[in-house]
Write a structure and sequence with these properties.
122 residues; mainly alpha; Rossmann fold; 49% helix; 0% strand; globular; ATP-dep_Clp_protease_ClpX; ATP binding; peptidase activity; ATP-binding
Length: 122
């Protein structure tokens, strides 16, 4: 139930309010990020499909099944991974947080708990 309530806040308010197309998302990323053309293209399509799945369920009106996909950005320091994610989050008006996973430990041990990362999002 909590997830359903949160999804309502993320989706465009009106059904007629269009989702940004992959081209529009890519153009916005082009305004802020130089290079990384393949990453911008993949991110734009993945974000579009994600919101399309949220709006329509797992299938489109044409009966095409939209599979859930995850993205892992890999690259050297300074290649633009964080900038891509931050720019995309700002464009979509969704929360964004960063965390250092090397400090995470199991509950009860010295270090940071996973719950602290989730709290940053709230």
């Amino acid at each position: 139930d909590i997830i359903r309530e949160e999804i309502k806040d993320v989706l465009p308010k009106k059904e007629s309010e269009a989702l940004p197309t992959p081209k529009q998302i890519r153009e916005h990323l082009d305004d802020y990020v130089i290079g990384q053309d393949y990453a911008k293209k993949v991110l734009a399509v993945a974000v579009y499909n994600h919101y399309k799945r949220l709006r329509n369920g797992d299938t489109t009106s044409e009966g095409v099944e939209l599979g859930k996909s995850n993205i892992l950005l890999i690259g050297p320091t300074g290649s633009g991974k964080t900038l891509l994610a931050e720019t995309l989050a700002r464009f979509l008006d969704v929360p964004f947080t960063m965390a250092d996973a090397t400090t995470l430990t199991e509950a009860g041990y010295v270090g940071e708990d996973v719950e602290n990362i989730i709290q940053k999002l709230l």
